[in-house]
Amino acid sequence: MTEQPQIHRSPKPPTQPSTRPLVSVSGLAKSFGDHEVLRSIDFEVPAGSVTVLIGPSGSGKTTVLRSLNALDLADGGVVRVGDVEVDFTRSPVTKRQVADLRAQSGMVFQAHNLFPHLTVLQNVTSGPVLVQGRGRVEAERDGRELLALVGLVEKADAYPYQLSGGQQQRVGIARALAIRPELMLFDEPTSALDPELVGEVLSVMKDLAAQGWTMVVVTHEIRFAQQVADQVLFMDGGVIVERGAPDEVLTRPRTERARQFLHRILDPLD
Hints:
four-stranded antiparallel beta sheet; 9 helices; 23% strand; globular
């Protein structure tokens, strides 16, 4: 067992009006060549809530996530995050629209993707300073607060190679938070970690959820979904097959496809 990080409260907890969902997706479609990856996806994410996407490999979960911040440009449909709305049915989508949508969210990938030649603090502050043009003193102050949030303030001057995989992923979370996003996106953030390191990353994510961060998470960590999610979307074949509260989707799935998937995840040796 690894020691769990000492988590501190976020210095700038998110505040959002509750009159409409923070995220709205309508008719989202995406193909890669002849392969139709997403077929008219619709869902909403209320502010301050956690949505978890589950499903087999190739079901379209990651493409949904990447479409929310325009890392993948959808072929059709409308995506709104906060006050930024992009209609991908209308073409061309401008670089400004893509930049505005991307600025609304911070993304944590399967691999941490830290810059190896920069210290931990420099990794966290690179986005605010180089992309957003914020002052270095302010960015470093906020960066140290975020490193305290993920339990790594004492590693501010270390380099990525000096950290464990779990610590590197926690730095990746701090880096995503540093741009002050409206929405946090997690693409299977524990899948590349040794099993003993998974808990420390999930602990940080649970703390963010408790603080009211709006999160969309792609994961196979079913227990995390049971404990943290407000809604679970089960995807297969590019469509949302089931949606609902964790108790509904994860313990009382309506479809045979969802039952088969959950059985294989929870009882892999059967």
